[in-house]
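2024-03-11 09:14:02 DEBUG pipeline.ingest accepted 1 chain
2024-03-11 09:14:02 DEBUG pipeline.ingest length=403
2024-03-11 09:14:03 DEBUG pipeline.predict start
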Amino acid sequence: MPDTLHPSRPDGRPVLLFYCQHSLGIGHLTRSFALVRALCEGFRVVFLNGGPIPPGVPIPAGMTKIDLPALGMDDGHNLVSRGGSHSVEDARETRRRMILAAVAEHRPRLLLVELFPFGRKKFAFEILPMIRAARRQEKPARVVCSVRDILVDARRDQQRHDDRARWLANRYFDAIVVHSDPAFARIDESFRPSKPLTTRLDYTGYVVPRRDHTDSDAGGDAILVSAGGGIVGYPLFAAALAAHGRLWPRRRLPLRIIAGPFLPEAEWQTLCQGVGDHPGVTLVRHVPDMVAEMRRARLSISQCGYNTALDVVVSGVSALLVPYAAKGENEQSRRAAALADLGAVRHFDGVLTDPAAFAAAIEGALDFCPRPAALALDGAPRTAAILRDLTVAEDPPRKLAHA
């Protein structure tokens, strides 16, 4: 059943149906919630949530949230159940039914789809029927893709993937909003279809969550280690513990590890047991404000997902980025290298299983003074303005005959 937080009234605002499927971490959810806060000023937002929301993540007021049976992806890119009480097959059927019911009930003026068709191929079974249903309304919905700055472009079938995404975008979408500063990262640098993308494309700037206060307590001695939601963070945490053991006798700098709400419980327990052999180490499961944590740190060591990279930029902390780079995953490596080229961070691209090399990289980063990265960070309000203009435009949505 929908979870209605401050139910919307028929006040003249058009309905925006926002589909978000976060599969591996919380980065997509964090960015989507930041967009929702800006969108609620001009739209009645109905949010289709496809993954688990961990405790401590603030949920925007003013939207109607519909929690679908939670699905995600494992390291092998297979669909897995995240809810525990349903199978993948049952979840697929229930989700599709709930999504089509939401379209029928709310009759959205605009459908905002996060990442697809540039990703989320495994969720096409529900996304394409949703788009077709929204297109076949008496007043067809505009359909827009919300996508991050850099795409994965290291798949074995990359050309086929890009060509399929281009075909779907041109056929079904009215616009694509790219949450990037084009002076830093353009989508055509990681997306190269054989034929041109003809759908309207707008760059919004980076989407940064709104902060209600600024933290004046800056600077400190601790080395901070984080990995976003934490689901693939254990190798980084284990490597940081090993490197800290080498640095502690000389530097005596405390180490603070923020594990993340999605770090598997077994790995969390392993970390907790291992800390007893490492003086000066503190473990924390989750914090509400990572920017504040970074501002209080001497050095931040982290992966380089979209939101984590922006936390580093906003905080101004000296940072060593260790991107998640499993087979076929190069988005974070590209982002880390680009930030390093600006002089904003240090980038470690060695192997975490070499404690001596990692400790040397940390020691070098401790004396690093970052340059400010002059990125456009107004992506949330600019996205809201673009979508408002698209919604009130007089010309009808394109491609209705193919929906």
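2024-03-11 09:14:41 DEBUG pipeline.report The two ends are 28 Å apart (CA to CA).
2024-03-11 09:14:41 DEBUG pipeline.predict end
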